[in-house]
Each structure stands twice: as C-alpha cells, then as structure tokens.
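Worked Example 4.2. Read the sequence first, then its structure tokens.
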Amino acid sequence: MADAVATGGFFSKIGALLQSTHLPAQIKDVDFVGLFTNPWFIIPFAALVGYLIWKQSFNELIVIIIFIGIWWLSGTEYMQTLVVDGELQINKVLPVLVGASAVLGFIIYLFFGRS
C-alpha cells in the first residue's frame, strides 16, 4: 500500500515538473522547418549521419531515428492530455508504456541480440 502511494507521488511530481517547465508547450512550438533549414543544425546533423553511414553504424542511425520519432510524438495532442487537472490519465499512459517497452526491447535487441 505504501509503495502505491509512493509511486503515485512520484508520477505526480514528474507531472508537476513537466507542467512547471512548460516542456510540452516548448516541444509543440518547435519550428521544424526552421530547425531543419538552419545551417547551424543541419550541417552537423548531416555530417553525423554521413559519418555513421560511412562507418556503417546502422544501429546508431536507428537509435537517432527513434529519438527523433519520440521527440515528434511528445509534441502531439495525445501526449498533452496525459495529465489533466493534475491527475495522470492511466488509460492513456498504458499504451505509452507498452510502446516505450517495445522500443526499449527493440533497442536492446539491436545492440545485444544480434551478433
């Protein structure tokens, strides 16, 4: 019983942190077109991708693509409604947890499952 209360307090603290830092709004307000046309971002990013292709480090490229996808997903309306009026919506969190565990399992398979 005490673990459930501690876990609920933990998630409410994370939700309060996200709301106080306005992180979801900041991610939603990112100008993707401006970011990917900014030479201060795109040149090092393209150099990193080119280097990883040259070194044939496809696992790292896949991880970068996954992080970009998570970044995009975190700015969607679905993620904005995970916490409503300071309460965590369990019915919306469970699919996120299942997806996150699947992605984590895939990353573990990439690095440790194949030889």
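Now turn to a second chain, presented in exactly the same format:
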Amino acid sequence: MNRDIDFKAVKVIKTDSLKKNGEQFALVALSARNIDAILALQDIIFDNLSEKQQSFILRKSREFFEGHLAAGNIVLGVVHNGQLVAQSVIVNPTENNPKTGMVDMALDVKLDKVTIIQGVAVHPDYRGNNLHLAMIGAWHDIAREQKRTHIIGEVAVDNHYSWSNALKEGRQIHSIGTDPSDGTQVYNMHAKLSAVDKNRLKEDFNKASAKNSVQCPHSDIEQQKKLLAEGYKGVSFDQASGMIEFKLPKARNKKPSSGGKHLP
C-alpha cells in the first residue's frame, strides 16, 4: 500500500505542524497522479475500523476519483514525510455535473453556490492532530475563493466524532436521511458560510445558542426527526451529557415536540 506523494503532482495549500510531535505537514490539493496513494490510504483506514464503523465510510473506486478530478472537483490531502496521511473529497456541483452525493436533502440553493465535503478520513496513526479540522478550514477557504456560499456534508449518525466536529465548525443538522446502499442513517449538515464566519468571531457563540432551544439525546433519532420536521436545526453537542441542542430560526420560535427539554 504505497502512499508516497510526488510533490510535483500536487498543489500545496499550506504547511503547518502536527499537534502531537510538532513535525511539519503539508495540506495539498491532490491530482489524478495521486489516485494510487488515495486508494491505499482509503484501504488502510477501512481495514482499521470495526465492522460497525466501516459503515461510516463509503469506499470510492478508481473510476470515481478519475471522474471526480476530471470534472474539476477537489481531493484534499495531508502529507507528512512524503506519505499521504489524511484526505477528504470536495464536490463542487455545476449544471453540467449536478450530482451532490447527498441523501434525502432538499435545499433550495443554486448548484454553483453549493460545496459538499465527503470521505473525511485520517490514518489511525495520525488521529489526535486536528487534521480533520485543518481540512475543513481549507475547504472553507476554497469555498470563499470560488464564491460558494453554502457548505454541506453528510455524516453517519453513529459517527459522533465527525458530526460533533462539524457542529463545532458551524454546520447544523439540517435533516436525517437513509443511505439506500446499506441502510445507514445519516445527518445532512448545512450552513451558510457567512454565518459560520460570523459566529466563529463571537466568543459567546456557544452560550448564545442555548437560548430558546431544545435538548435531545443523541440516541433518540425519532425525537430528532420530529424536531427537524418542525423546523428545528441541530446546533451543538454536549459530549458529557450526550445531548444535541436543537434551535428554531428566530422567525419560527414555537413550543417544541413533547420529549425535548425546553431551555429558558
């Protein structure tokens, strides 16, 4: 499984230091010449997951990556000591290539204003270095450059690490869908990029989001579906209590469904 990266075949976006040992890594945009490394990393990550966790990742084929990159889409990679150690797939749909890969998500936004992140994956030896968040940050920067205003992603409901990171970065739980390929339930997560930027500047963002909200156990999917159907959006997660916080847009404040806890 060769994950060697030829830097002549990538575009370096930024360099930074690993949190655990301080060594330098490069965040890059990969090319079709890197597909062997992309597939090798995908296999390593998949093989190191439990059977249940393997449902978190939809393995993509060589043909997918060839078509994805040929259509002008992006694969972000993190390279350390010449090896690919993390990656994520960015889909930027157009009228000619309208597929988003999302499940059961209705969003009234023009295709050229939407950007979707998929397949965020980190080599097991490199977890705990915040590489997931580094790739999300690069994705946001690319979206700004391309004037794409809506950031979207799909995360397995059981993959609480990934969707809690998405909530921290400002995306909200927009709806819950079911992947028809294997029956996995997924959170469809969405935010306006302008709102993400604005909220990250507020030191009291997390406290402010608690006003007029409802808390629901992350295991209670049926209650979450009821709240989402009423217009609530999932905005934050408290790992200690296992509660997801749902909030109505300001214009739609009303009493929550029974079963949720209404906060003052």
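Notes for the reader: The mean pLDDT is 87. The chain has seven helices and twelve strands.
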